[in-house]
Each structure stands twice: as C-alpha cells, then as structure tokens.
C-alpha cells in the first residue's frame, strides 16, 4: 500500500489479505445485486467478460473526450484498436455491438468531420449509470479505510469523468481480469453469471485458510434466482451444472457448498479491480485539480 496525500493506493495482494476487505466486498455485492434486480437489461452490458471489455473500452473513449475534446472519437475503428490484442472480439463484433447499444439508446450518433465515419457518444443515461457503478466501487473501498472518496465524488462528480479512462485502461491491460481463473470463468462469462457468483459468495465473511476445501453457503433455488434476474430456470441450472462438473460447487443434502479455490480466485479477481479503483481515483483527483488550476 502506498499513500498519495491522505488517500491510500492499494496493491491487490495486500487488499485481499485485509480483514476489512470482506466489508468492502459485501457492500459492493449488495449494491450491484440490487442494481441488477432493478435494471436486468442494462446490467447485461457489463455482466459477461466480452461485453464488459467492449463497454469499458467504449466508455474510455467517451469519457476521455469529455475531459479532452481533442481525444479520439468513439468509432468502431478506434474501439477495435483499443481491444484487438485481447483476442476476445473481431471488427464485426465491435460494429454489431455499437449498432445494438445504439438501438437501445445507450449511445447516440454524433456528426463527424468525415461523413463516412460513424462517431458516437454515450447517452446521458449511460453516463449516469457508470457514474453510479464507479461510486459504488469507491464507497466499497471507503468501507476499508474511511477515506471519504464517495463523498468527494458526490460533491464533485466531474472527477468520475477523469477516473473512468484511467480505471478502464488498467482493467483492459490486466490479463487476470480479461482471462479469469477456471473456477470463475463460467460465471463471469455469462450475462447472469456474475450475479449468481455474487449470490454464492455474499454470505462468506472471511477468506478460506489452511487446507479447507469446501465452504457451506446459503443459496436460493435456481427457480428463485431465474425469476429475480429475468432468465429461464434452465439457464441458471446449466450454469450451476458447469461449475459442479469442475468440483467448485455442489450440494450435500439440502446444503449447498462452493470450493475454497473458487472463493480465493474470486477474492483475488475482485482485489485486482479494487486496486485499480484505488489508483484511478487518486490519479483522477490529481488530473481534475490540474485542469481546474489551468482554467
């Protein structure tokens, strides 16, 4: 952990080992599960790894231009250029994705100098949604150290415009986040899987230690989860089966369990995200202050 001013910047390894990290995760889980219940359609644009990469890259281009109007436009070519080395998408995937989110009203076409190039910006709703997402993560980090990041961004939301491109770039460069461990890859690669993963891990209050292999959890039925997230029961059941085959989930009588490996991998995966959040916030405050000083 290093300090920038009074605000800590964390390394993932250190973060995952902190006792308060569980408070941070529990807060974030609860907030994101609640958002998913309220907005199942919108959440699917960040709920699986491929869409998550596309959406954060598109937002990176959008918010970069919000703070620097000379930055590259959000176009299919620029978006593909940001993520082509992730090998998750093709140019066609990018074009189809932009058409799809334009149809839903998440992005709007804007005039560009070159009439042949389609350029876009995020809608006001999309901007607001990602301000909420970043705020939830900042408030979760505040559970660890009480540094008051969320109060600062509530009073000065423009900091979030600076923060998103820094955060997204770190996330897109992080191979561990782009290619998650085997134990959680099935969950984070599907639309509803991330919420199922949050449900599976929300009752866990400490990291597994020693040679413990399984952890008992309270998990709703596939039926209840399907209703909650607006998908079919079969969708949830197939997902659970895939994790069961890997011996990372199962049932003993009426009790459900998940593997200690899944919990450790999930904690490490989340710790990397929160480490990036901690750095992006401090850097965004610095950029925002410099911009204001120059104005």
Explain what this protein looks like in three dimensions.
- The chain is mainly alpha-helical.
- Helices cover 65% and strands 9% of the residues.
- It is built from 15 helices and 7 strands.
- It has helices at 12-17, 21-38, 40-47, 49-67, 76-83, 91-103, 124-145, 149-155, 158-173, 175-178, 182-188, 193-201, 222-229, 233-245, 260-294; strands at residues 2-4, 7-9, 107-110, 119-122, 214-217, 249-252, 255-259.
- The strands form 3 sheets. It has a 3-stranded antiparallel beta sheet with strand order 5-7-6.
- Helix 4 (49-67) crosses helix 9 and helix 13 packs across helix 14.
- The longest helix is centred in the C-terminal third of the chain and has 35 residues, at 260-294.
- It is globular.
- The two termini are 33 Å apart.
- The model has no long low-confidence stretch (mean pLDDT 88).
- Silhouette: globular
String of helices and strands: EEHHHHHHEEHHHHHHEHHEEH
Helix content: 55-70%
Number of DSSP helical runs: 15
Question: What fraction of the residues are assigned to beta strands by DSSP?
Answer: 5-15%
Any key phrases for this structure?
295 residues; mainly alpha; 15 helices; 9% strand
Brief summary:
The protein contains 15 helices and seven strands. The chain has 295 residues and is mostly helical. The chain has a three-stranded antiparallel β-sheet. Strands 1-2 form a two-stranded antiparallel ribbon.
